[in-house]
Amino acid sequence: MNYYFIVNPVSGRGRGKVLGQRLAERLSRLSINFEMVWTERPGHAIELAERGARSHSVVVAVGGDGTMNEVLNGVVESGTALGLIPVGSGNDFARAVNIPFDFDQALEVLLKGRKRKVDIGKANERYFHNGVGIGFDAWVVHTSLGVKRLRGNAIYLYSVLRTLMKYKPVPLELSFNGSVKIDDYFMISVGNGVSMGGGFYLTPDAEIDDSLFDLCLIQNMPTVSILRNLIKVYSGTHKEDPRVEMHRTDHLRVESRQPFGVHVDGELFSLSVQKLDIEIIPRGLEIIC
Fold it and tell me: How far is CA 191 from CA 35, 170, 211, in A?
């Protein structure tokens, strides 16, 4: 196989640059056939992935869930296999497909070349691999963009507490499985993988190859209850709360007369969405894991 590595040098608070250089040295010593390119701006990985998919058998994202999302959107139409060296703050997709967080172990998995077909999703025109967050979760992502000194799920936890002080839910109309639900939902998580935000198990029973999303619908509740459930999300036991609904579906439509926020794979999609269609694409991605 010939590999095309797309490195995000700012992922993992700058670890991407260091690990990218280390990776190039290791691959050269092993006489691996590869090309390595570096992202320079948001969205750049999509362009690079489109180019790499035309001439390489495997395109590899070296970064976090955001980098992986861009690479996915660049190669999904080509059917080229994807690899991942996780370097980001959350790495939830790596967790979902059992790719080790350790650099050496992740590289070993990649070079063994075992491929697996997994589901992906599409939110309006944007493909995603791990999940979509609607409402509070999207505003948390927005807040996290200003956090510079923390790492991992500490970023998410800090951003949750900051966002809680100002977030106001809006009425949302949900259509799925032949039913319609209307409520001021606090947040909605659409999970292809089991976790978001670096280990928050919002959809703990999700399977990445069952042709279904897991939905977590959280009704609006007092701040004390939100904080109590936040602790439970670490273990996935929040779903025992009667104000938390869990469902499975292959399509979800969300509509509102008021703008609502959306994140896709932990990257801010928009804070002014009024209609969102989310559909599953069964076995739409071949991943080396």
Answer: 33, 21, 12
Instruction: Give the whole-angstrom CA distance, residue 173 versus residue 185.
Output: 9
Q: Please state, in angstroms and as integers, the Cα–Cα distance from residue 285 to each residue in 190, 198, 248, following that order.
A: 18, 22, 20
Confidence check: pLDDT of 57 > 90: yes
CB within 8 Å of 61: residues ≥ 6 apart: 6, 8, 45, 67, 68, 70, 71, 82, 83, 84, 85
Domains contained in the chain, CATH given: 3-113 (3.40.50.10330), 131-278 (2.60.200.40)
pLDDT digits (tens, 9 = 90+) for 248-270: 999 999 999 999 999 999 999 99
From the CA atom positions of the chain, what is the Rg in Å?
Answer: 19
pLDDT digits (tens, 9 = 90+) for 265-274: 999 999 999 9
Continuous H helices in the chain: 11-29, 44-53, 65-75, 92-96, 103-112, 136-144, 153-164, 223-233
Distance CA(117)–CA(180), nearest Å, equals: 32
- The Cα 60–Cα 103 span in angstroms is 13
Q: What pairs with residue 122 in β-bridges?
A: 127, 279
At what angle are helices 223-233 and 153-164 packed, to 10 degrees? 170
The CB density around residue 125, as the number of other CB atoms within 10 Å, is 7
